[in-house]
Design a protein that fits this description.
Layout lengths: L1 E6 L6 H9 L4 E4 L7 H11 L3 H12 L3 E7 L1 H4 L31 H15 L8 E5 L18 H19 L4 E6 L16 E5 L14 H14 L5 E4 L4 H4 L13 H13 L4 E5 L5 H7 L14
Parallel strand pairs: 1-2, 1-8, 2-3, 3-4, 4-5, 5-6, 6-7, 7-8
Helix pairs in contact: 5-6
């Protein structure tokens, strides 16, 4: 089972990379902040990727044998909100029947989907040293769907897979072996019904509302979700994106960060369980554990992540 930790780009250091390698982490995940300003965070990341010092960090990670991935909420970046005045039909309809520029887009507008897919393909080419696995998530939060007549007939999961299928098609025109993640998160934890995943679209399971101190196998709801999702997507390339080390979550997404103590018992049990289901990669956010955290509390302990299930 491959291991990955996701960090905010501004928190990445050589020391962090060394710590990950010491815990057997194979993949470095770069995760600009989400929320309502995710498009701005992504723009800042792209600027960082033009900076030699940041590229040197990524080169160092690669030299130590790590793959590099980029994971972010991308919808408002891929379809700029500035297009709303000229093309309100591209954007989401709210519960009052009004087109609004905030949050995602209309999943039934073919011109909007083409724009997003082409923008994703262009963005992929700017992700320095990226592995050919791409994570163009919808905007963050709940109630993120479009309420127009056509979209109203689809679940948010069906809307998302429709978009990811389109992105995967565009990516493969330039990157033949590209793969695209379907993020099972909040409203998309239920499997799609109307559309099947295109070849190359894989499952990424991110149960943000889970009880982090209770093993996954002890939650009937989660085990049922996972069974249905794995049955639908298959386990090839399947990845769990967990919150075992996400101090941004435990700090309420506000700094200064709080002191963080991971639950090693749960981490090891969950790794066993996900491996038994065939997940190929286990990942966790590891944000708010940067230099400012170390200055307050000392070096974070990620040693439990080195555990390898023995199936």
């Amino acid at each position: 089972m491959k291991k990955e930790l996701l960090v905010h780009p501004e928190e990445l250091t050589r020391k962090w990379i060394d710590r990950m390698c010491g815990a057997g982490v194979n993949i470095l995940g770069i995760h600009p902040r989400g929320g309502v300003k995710a498009d701005e965070s992504l723009a800042e990341l792209l600027a960082s990727l033009e900076d030699k010092n940041f590229r040197d960090l990524l080169d160092y990670a690669a030299a130590r044998g790590m793959e590099i991935e980029y994971e972010f909420h991308a919808a408002s970046f891929l379809l700029p909100r500035s297009l709303f005045d000229a093309h309100p039909e591209y954007f989401r309809m709210n519960e009052n029947g009004q087109r609004v520029r905030e949050v995602n887009f209309c999943f039934s507008n073919e011109e909007a989907l083409d724009y997003i897919a082409n923008a994703a393909s262009e963005l992929a080419g700017k992700l320095y040293r990226s592995a050919p696995r791409y994570y163009f998530w919808l905007d963050d939060g709940k109630d993120i769907g479009c309420r127009c007549e056509k979209c109203g007939k689809m679940s948010v999961s069906d809307c998302q897979i429709k978009v990811m299928n389109r992105i995967e098609e565009a990516l493969r025109k330039k990157i033949p072996h590209a793969k695209t993640a379907f993020l099972a998160y909040y409203e998309t934890l239920r499997k799609p019904v109307l559309f099947k995943p295109a070849d190359g679209v894989f499952l990424e399971y991110a149960p943000i509302e889970r009880d982090i101190h209770k093993p996954v196998r002890q939650s009937e709801g989660m085990t049922r979700e996972l069974s249905e999702l794995i049955s639908f997507f298959g386990s090839k390339d399947a990845k769990t994106l967990e919150y075992w080390y996400d101090n941004s979550l435990f700090s309420g997404w506000k700094k200064p960060p709080k002191r963080f103590v991971p639950d090693g018992r749960v981490i090891k049990d969950d790794l066993d369980y996900y491996a038994s289901l065939g997940f190929e990669t286990a990942a966790s956010f590891a944000c708010f554990l940067g230099q400012d955290y170390e200055e307050l509390y000392g070096e974070p302990d990620i040693s439990d992540f080195a555990y390898q299930p023995d199936l």
